[in-house]
Amino acid sequence: MRGTSDLPTLLATLAPVVSPQVYVFLSRPLAIYGDGAELDPIATFSEKEGLTLIVPKERADTAGEIYDGEYALISLSVHSDLQAVGLTAAIAAALSERGISANIVAAFYHDHLFVPLSRVDDAVTALSQLAADNQP
Questions:
Q1: Average of pLDDT values for 57-75?
Q2: Which residues form the CASTOR ACT domain (predicted)?
C-alpha cells in the first residue's frame, strides 16, 4: 500500500511521536551488515568507512561503546510515500530555522528524525507548528 505523496496533506498530518528511548550513533570500521546485532540496532547503514549503527544508548553503555552525542527519536505518524517530494526539505527547513540538526531516516511507512536530545522539545514544537501552518 502506497503512502501519501501530496505535500500539503503530509505536512498537515505529520503527528510527531517521541520515543522514550535515547539513541546513539556508532561506527565500526571493517564491520559488515549483521555485525553489532547484540546492540539491538534500530538501523544500520554500510558505508565505505565501515558500518554505522543507531542503537539504544543503554545498550551502547552496557557494551562500553564510545559515541558522540545522544539523540531523541521522533517518528512521524503520517504514512508517507517513498517517492513523495518536498517532505524532507520542509522538515529540514522548519528545524534549521530554529538551529536544530536532524538525521532523517525514511523507512517504508514513516519518516524518523534523530535530533539532539537537548533539543527534542524544540523540534516537536517546530514540527507541530509546521503541521498547524498547513491545515486546510
A1: 97
A2: 73-128
pTM of the model: 0.93
In a domain, 39, yes or no: yes
What is the span of the domain harbouring residue 50? 7-133
Sheet with 103-106: strands ordered across: 43-47, 50-56, 16-28, 71-76, 111-116, 103-106
How far apart are alpha carbons 19 and 12 in whole angstroms? 21
Pick from 3, 4, 16: which is nearest to 132 by CA? 16
Q: Is pLDDT above 90 for 4? A: no
Looking at per-residue confidence, does 31 or 23 come out higher?
23
Contact in structure between 94 and 120 (CB atoms under 8 Å): no
CA distances from 77 to 11, 80, 110 (A): 11, 9, 6
If you average pLDDT over every residue of the chain, what do you get?
94
Is residue 1 in some structural domain? no
Determine, yes or no, domain membership for 2. Answer: no
CATH value at residue 20: 3.30.2130.10
